[in-house]
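Q: Could you write out the predicted structure for this multi-component system? I'm mainly interested in how the pieces pack against one another.
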Amino acid sequence: MPQEPIDPQGLVFQRVSPAYAKVRLVGWAISALVTWAVLAVPLVLMLTGVWSGYPAWLAWGLLGVVVVFDVVRMAIIPRQVRAIGYAERDDDLLIRSGLMFQQVLVVPYGRMQYVDVAVGPIDRALGLCKVQLHTASTTAKAEIPGLPSSEGTRLRERLSARGEARLAGL
Amino acid sequence: MTEAEESAPWRRVHPVSPMVRGWLVVVAFLYFFGQNSLNNIFSAGELPPEADKDWSFTPSVLLVVAGGIGILVLIMAGFFLSWYFTKYQVTARHVHVNSGVVFRQQRQARIDRVQAIDIVQPLVARIFGLAELKFEVADSGSTAMRLAYIKLDAAKVLRNDILARAAGLKQEREAGPAGVVPAPGVPGAEGPAARSAEPASAGPAPAPGPAGGEPVSPEAPERTVAVVPPPRLIAATLLSPWLAAVLLFVLSMIVATVASDGEISFFFVLPGLIGVVPVLWGQFNQGYNFRAAMSEDGLRLSYGLLETSHQTVPPGRVQAVMVTQGIIWRRFGWYKVVVNVAGYGNQEGALRSTLLPVGTRQDVLNVLSIVLPEPGTERPAELVGAGIGGSGSAEGFITSPRSARWLSPFAYRRQGFAVTDTALFSRAGVLTHSLVIIPHERIQGIFLTQGPLNRPLGLTGIEFCTTDGPISPRVKQMSLRTGRELFMSQASRAARARRLKDRDHWLEEENHE
């Protein structure tokens, strides 16, 4: 895993499954297709002559820009997935993510209120799951997506046990 | 369930409560119905007989009155049922509230997880001497429990009782068989000396407990730490920046009116300006008579002109504090203090989370000394002073490096942080000074972030996660090294402080770890 400048030193992050990129790609494909279909409406209307007054450069340009943007987005999905990592320490859990906007989140085990394992339809087909940690803060909702099911279960048990040992009120 | 759990009696709220909540419906109904039917009656009477024949249906006076009474009876019956089915029970560990006629709802809240207790009296409730008790817990995501409405005295007794139990006074053990009311100051009571030694006459005379012979907790004596005199409140409200903006806008409109010979008329914006009045009134009405006091139970806030509120925030329930001072207030030396308290949230919490609507520096220090009893430094006043108004590295503040001047040309020397043994102080803002204090043991999570603007300048930012509220603590644009060090050290401080500090029964001896 590449060491980014903001990554805490001396810490090895576990990567999530590369197969998670497929989950993200499916999500990307759905949202991209919907956007393209909507943006294609004026173009089709113009080409069929229903709305011939519509400027051609706008119809093509808008769709073109969005398509280029979406393709770039698609191209970096595998890298984004590679950038997701997590590390368990004795007292806390660290989760890093992001390429452009990088972030590292640390949540002390004592703050965890409960741990969820969520499995979506595509996750299930690929044998993946998502572990979510909930704290009293809505912003500190830590998510580790794209974990193999066995690792997800192990992590949940482990986190619950550690949280239990260190748990207290707010 | 312990024995005490089961034996606690179920009670009902005051019978008038549905009326207090629904009086507006009844008044509105009476008004419209009365007006309509009167109109009908009069117009029917005045109609010439010929016209009468055109009407397929003439409402007879009797029918109208009977219908009106019928609807009123239905509303009353609804009120009665909702009252009848609302019951509450306060046991040693839980508060239970059952409500609902068709869809029954049962809620319970753990007393030792209480985050804050409010006693609220809307105007109508005040007329009846009633009050609403709001009980904020941060337990399994349930929000406030409300008991509306009960007698003010009963509400106070209940509040003191809940707080005493939450504090771990273990009164129920001394309570003995039902009916015996223990003297609050019995020697050997397990509370700390301050509490036990409190003479019964210190607070208001111990009110007779609600029927059932439960132990009555004395109201903890309080010491006023800050008051806001009404003139200062009015002045501060009028000197707020947004009102200045409104005035500026009005002035520019007047100028425009004169300059354009009345083509752009100032009077166009007049209706909009009337909207300012309720806002100002609201601020005045809510902030009127504001008083912050310290008691054994925690911080007490009371305020309000027509609708009064009394809030109690137990110690250690404040997740973050922010002191702010706008550019206009700086001339007068006024500050505002807000807090994050779990359950207060952000929506209606505008004033609920305000510790001090407008106060002097001494008021600020007084209030801070309560919510942050151990500042973790020997020079708290100087630190807070440097945090609110200072810049540079005075008092141990670490500010943004010079490279941050491209992003924050004015603020880079000011924005920064200082760490004490117990809390992190983060300051920011050039026009509006702000100082955020977050105790180490209240940090829920920490984000270390770097966006595309920060990366080439070697900067990084940190966001601290707390419960929802008006404050989102952060430190912007630190050098990469400082940021990374703060992130790691703060993470371990958070975990460590947590192990030392965690307790729900804050008056009990610390007995774990």
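A: Regarding packing and overall arrangement: Residues 17-46 of chain B form the longest helix (30 residues).
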